[in-house]
Design a protein that fits this description.
Elements: E1 11-14, E2 20-23, E3 29-31, H1 48-70, E4 80-89, E5 95-104, H2 110-123, H3 125-130, E6 135-140
Parallel strand pairs: 5-6
Antiparallel strand pairs: 1-2, 2-3, 4-5
Helix pairs in contact: 1-2
Length: about 140
């Protein structure tokens, strides 16, 4: 598989889960904290799972907009995607992720909404990157 890269970004992390991360261009910087559930102190920083969930939510809306635009159909302005990312030990060793995407398309016919979500799942780069790698649920709410 090849990708015709149209955009790329660079971010550097220091200190691991209790450090910080920032983009090379300086437009984004975040303090990182390990959640208590993973043996950390918790704290005011964010963790990689939160960042992943946020990115996937935003990207999935973009994928739905793309799919809808190909059909000349707008999506509701108040569309939301709430992504829940879980992390924990895998039975095979190491750690793994799970994901649940709850998609709200207010006012849209339920069957049309489900079709849009299924098609967007085939387009979204986060969905493509994780396909068959993690347990994932897609829900139209």
């Amino acid at each position: 598989m090849s990708v015709n890269v149209l955009y790329s970004t660079t971010s550097t992390a220091t200190g691991g889960r209790d450090g910080e991360a920032a983009t090379k261009d300086g437009s984004f910087k975040v303090k990182l904290s390990t959640p208590k559930e993973l043996g950390g102190a918790g704290g005011t920083g964010n963790n990689p799972e939160q960042l992943f969930a946020s990115g996937w939510s935003a990207c999935f809306i973009g994928a739905m907009k793309f799919v809808a635009s190909q059909k000349k159909q707008p999506i509701p302005a108040d569309t939301t995607v709430t992504t829940t990312v879980g992390i924990g030990p895998r039975s095979e060793g190491g750690f793994g992720l799970t994901a649940k995407l709850d998609v709200s398309l207010p006012g849209m016919d339920k069957a049309a909404a489900k079709q849009l979500v299924e098609e967007a799942d085939q387009v979204c780069p986060y969905s493509n990157a994780t396909r068959n790698n993690i347990e994932k649920q897609l829900n139209v709410v």
